[in-house]
Structure formats: structure tokens, C-alpha cells
Amino acid sequence: MLGVRHHGPGSARAVRGALDAARPAAVLIEGPPEADALIPLAADPGLRPPVALLAHAVDEPGRSAFWPFAEFSPEWVAIRWALRHGVPAHFIDLPAAHTLAWEGGEGREGEGNEQEGNEHEGNEREGKGEENTAADPQRADDGRDGAEQARVDPLAVLAEAAGYDDPERWWEDVVEHRGPGERDPFAPFGALEEAMGALRERYGVGGHSRDLVREAHMRLRLRAARKEFGDEVAVVCGAWHVPALRARTTVTADRSLLKGLPKVKADLTWVPWTHHRLARSSGYGAGIDSPGWYGHLFHAPDRPVERWLTKVARLLREEDRIVSSAHVIEAVRLAETLAALRGRPLPGLGETTDAVRAVMGDGSDVPLALVHDRLVVGDVLGEVPESAPAVPLQRDLTRQQRALRLRPEALERELELDLRGDTDAGRSRLLHRLRLLGVDWGEPTRSRGSTGTFRETWRLRWEPELSVRVAEAGVWGTTVLGAAQAKAESDATAARTLADVTALAEQCLLAGLPDALPVVMRILADRAALDADVGHLAQALPALVRSLRYGDVRGTDTGALAGVAAGLAERVFVGLPPACTALDTDAANEMRAHVDAVHTAVGLLAETSTATGSGTGGRAGGGVDGGAVTGAGHGDLRGRWRAVLRVLSSRDGVAGVLRGRAVRLLLNDGELGSEEAARLMGLALSPGTPPADAAAWIEGFAGGGGGLLLVHDERLRGLVDGWLTGVPAEAFTDVLPLLRRTFAAYEPGVRRTLGELVRRGPGGQVAHEAVTPGFAAEPDTGRADAVLPVLRLLLGLDGQAETADDNHLVEVGT
């Protein structure tokens, strides 16, 4: 009986030494028996830890459980020893078929469905929006499962008895930092068995009631192995279980505990795992704080502290920190001194961390964060060979990853794609298809360079639970393309709002699903014809217009999309003015967001039409199936939209925030001069306007980057300043939140400049001050001329003959 702690390098070394000494005829390992057929794959060089056994219910792939293994896991060492010596190896824990059914909510006959089992990460049921946890067969052994009722932590009890206040430190001192004795390789296991036996006598199952069922099954499997192989059998399991497996029970009693267990059909395979997921901070119950440190302890042939601190020094040098050999020597001395002062047999992670902070980090914790992420935890991702069982969708995904040179990695990284190239375009389609299937390997992010539609930026990170998502998505098809197409059609049928359908149309274009687009467009046209809510139409239009632009770079026929977009725009133009009247504050702010979105969409739609020379719908008549209305042409959309904005800017029943926003948009487009804008602002801020309405008008006009308007237009700034100083004291408190929200959104530099300009007052001088520091009476053209070469270079004019545009550059420089 080799009682171990999961993922412990000291336990792993002790198991290897005990097996070498005992040479058993068979090795029994804690784990799901259905995985026996997968054990031979551990000899494949392509199966590189960390890996995990993944079990999922065939009829409900989202119901799943993992059994992780690292190179320093005692169970993995036992499997590799058995394969290397040609010895049969078998898993003996409760079958995954029972574990998944039990945790999935299917009660046992004659019992309530108790949910006090050991939770395990990675089991989420997206369909119901709830987290479904499956039993973690390794968690109870460490006694840290965080269940509702009080449970015994074996390590904490033993550490307290030994005078330690930290169970982890006690375990490292007595096991992880000490190998098995040279004379008696079984001594560590005998001591642990005796300690756990005393704990089981005192606390029984220690609150882990489900362990009774698991241990009954393990005893039955042990009896069967002894009948087949005799007493030369080694059992590698959690130390907590050893006393129960030694107990004298009858076969009848054990079978009675297993009677009536629920059962589902389960499939098992190997999947890649990561050191991040082995870390306890990730939520995995039988995890460890420092998998990278434990891996180092397991592989270091000698002098582990010196080797570890050398790794730390190498990492810090790569990050351009000055770390010399003398730093390493002093850090080793300090770590050893700290261990001696603290009564430890060997410097542990705490001592080495303190030494790194003091010697290599100059007392700062900043480099420690890097050391923790890259070394203490690590970013190692395991690998699984192609010969491992997998759903057809996973095989197709693996093939495409290899063809596109898009390797899964545990470390988060950014990927810049240029969609004009075939490889990057294929990567984009694959990532978008996976997102459509709920496999969020990549997350789109804002590009730091070009903002064109030919460029995409993704943030990639492969998480082990994505293997579960792939298994779940396998119900939609056997290939990524087929599954994504089927999922898109199903989502379009089940979509609840028009905006959901337009977003789905956008996803179909991004994912390159031309066969799914007709179904989505038919549903979109039907929804658009029946939906009379202007807010819904306004929400749907931007995504549809963006899709037109995506179609250009991806070579997709977007004629049908153009027709629907034009129809939606026309209906928004007609219905928006009535929909903007008699709104309360919250509704007005929501409608303001719709107005901004439609304004941007109309501009893009007109640009797309100009660039492509298309008509309304891209096909004869410009009509759309389902009754969506189309207009005369995209070229006149801007004019009709501006007419709508003029109506909003002057209609009395429209909320102030919307009227102010309409004036601002017209001013930005050059449809209003500053004189006209000042006139409208003067009307809105007249004494007859309630202060709250006037403040809302200012919020609509000046919000969202409007500070620069006030900086450069003295008349508008004077109107706002004059109104603000004239607000009655009793009303000022009411309008202050609106004003604070508006001006707090400005950049600090804009706020500072506005304050200085207001302080200077009309005419540019401050009372009691002849000249304000930093401001001259006239522009300094000499300093402006010095900026011209740089501005010409930035604007792409470098090397060209000087033109009249230099006059504008002089103004910009000034």
C-alpha cells in the first residue's frame, strides 16, 4: 500500500523507489477503471505531461470530469514504471460512469441526492447557465475540498500535532524535501499509513461520506487483483484511503454500498493540461500552489536550491535586470541561513523567495510576480498524440491547427492577422468559427496598429476545459466548418431579438459561412419586417453595416446584406423622431447611444456604397424578401439622416440630451456652422430653460470628446460659461451630477486647458495678471515652423513639394 499525496514530487520519488524494490506483479492506481485502455498511450513519446484523463457523458458532453497528472504525480510515475517493466496496470477508483451520473443530479435509489461530493473544475453546463461539478477523485485525499459541512484536513491535523502552523510547510519538510530511506524504501509509506490510521480512528470518514462508496469499489478491485496476481500487488492511492483498504470487510458489505448507483454512458480520453490548472488558485481542489517548483524538485538530480536560484537569475536577466553570479551565490547562502533559523531540513519555496526578494530584487516584490508566474507556477502545456481517442470534431480541429501553424499554448499571447494573406485569413475564419461554437480559444481585441478591416488582433490562450467545449460542439458536426454552419442556423432560428440575428449575420461573414448566410438573412428579413421598435432597428443596423465592410476584404457577396441594411436605415429615419419624444432620463440616454450608433453606421454604409458603386440592394429592384423597405440609393442616406438630425435638434418634445447630441453630430459633419450651433446653444441655455434640461443639452452636445470644441470655439465656451455662472444656487446642486459626468469624461489635458481658458476670461488675459505662464499674446510662428518637418513626415508628405496645405500645418503646429 503506497499512500501518497497527489502531485507531490517527494511522493513520486518514494513510489518509484518502492516499486523498484518490490517488483510487483501488478500495479493498481486510483483512477476511473474505464481508462485502463488508455494506459498504454502513456508510453507514447507524444503524450507529454501535464495531461489529464477527461471523462464526459456521451449524451451530455458538458457533464465531465478531469483526472490530472503531472510528471511529478505519483500515479503517473506508477503508470510509467508499469509500462517500462511490462507489468499490468489498472485503475481501481469508482467508475466515471457513476461519478458523472451522481454529480449530474441523478439520485441514488432509496437515497436523497446528496451534493457533498468533491468538486472539480471544468464542468460547466452552459445551456442552463449553472455550474455542474463532477466528483474529483483526488480532492478528498488532501482534505481541502471547501464543502459546506466541516471536514477534516488530515495535513492540518498532523502539522498541528508536529508543532507547525502551516500544513504545506510541514508536508514539504517531512516528505517533499526528503527522499525514501536508502535502507527501507517503504518507511515513508508505513509512517503515513500509521498517521492516517490514527486519524481515521479518531474522525471516521472525516466528513467525506462519499469516500465510503469509492473505497468499497477499490476493495472489490483489489480482491480481484489478488485472486489473479497473488499478493504481489502494489496499490498507489491517496494516503487517506489506505486504512480503509486495509480494513477487513465482506464482499457482500462492499457490494451493498455500490448497489443502486446511478450510471451514464461515458467516454474517456487524454487531453492536454497546464501547470496553471494544477495550481490550487485556479479552483482545482487537489491542486498545488507551486507546480513549477515541484517539477523542479522532482527533476533536479542534486543541489535543488542552487539550480532553482540559477533559473531565477536567468529569467531576470532575460527581462533586462542586472543579476550576476554573485547575486546567485549570496541568494543561496541567505536561503540556507533562513532554513537553518527556521528549523527546516532544506530551504523551501518560502526561503528561496525571501532570498530572491532581498538579494536579486533589492527588497521589491515586483520581480517576484514574474518569478511566480513563469517559474513557481509555470506556463507548461502538455501534449497528446494523434493516436489518442477523440471526437471527430477534435481531430478536424487538430488538423487545421497544424495546417495553419496555429499551435495551442498555455501562455497568453497576441496574434496579429493580415487578412489579405491566405494563411492569416484561414486563421481568422477558424477562430471565429470556434467562437461561434462556444470554444473561446481566441478573443478579438483592438489592434494597436492599423484600424483597417484587413487587420485583426486576437488574444489567444488554450485552457484545458476547451477540450470539453469541443466535445460539446461535436453534436453539431464532424468538422469545424460543418459544425459552425449548423450552429449558426440553429442560433438564427432561436434568436429572440433582431439585434441577435444581425450579430449572427456578422459572425457568419467573419467565420466564412456562406452556406449559412441565406438562412440567417431570410430570418433577418422576416424579423426586420415585423419589428416596429426603433430601438431594436437601431441596435441591429451597426452590426449589419460592419458586415458589409468585412465582406470586402473577405471576398464575400454582401448584396443581400446591403439591401437589408438600406431598408433598416430607412425605417430608422422614419421612426426615430417620434420615438425620441416624451422620454425619461434613462430612456433618453439609451436612445442617445442608438443615435450615435446609427450615425456611425450611416457613414459607413454611404462609404461602402461609394467604394463599390452599388445600388440599394446589390440586386435588381433592391427589394428584400420578407417585406423590408429599401430606399432610392445609398448615396442619399447621409442627406436624409442629416435631415432627421435637424428635426431632432429643434423639436420641442425631444429630450435635451438628444437635441444637444443632434447639434453636435451636425456640427461635426459640417452641416452646421459655429454661428448656427452657437444660436441653438443660446436657445437651449436661455433663462427660460429649466437648469436640468439645459444641463442635459450640454451633456449631449459636449459629451464624448466635445471638450476640444469648447477649447477651440470661444463663443461656445462663453455661452456654457455664462449659463453656468447664472444657474441659481438652489438649482446648481441638481445639475451638478450631470455636469460632473460630462466634464469628468474629458482627458486631463483638456480639462486643464479649459480651466485655464476660463480663468483667462474673454480677450485672453487674467484679471490682475498681465500674461499667463504658458500662453503668449500671439502665436509663435517660429516654433510652429520647427514642427513642420515632423508633421509632413507623419502625414506622408515628406519629400514632396511644399503646397498650400502647409498653411494648415502651421495652424496645427501653432
TrEMBL record:
InterPro entries: DUF5682, LolB. Residues 105-131, 138-151 have a biased composition (Basic and acidic residues). Residues 104-152 are annotated as: Disordered. This is Uncharacterized protein. It comes from Streptomyces incarnatus.
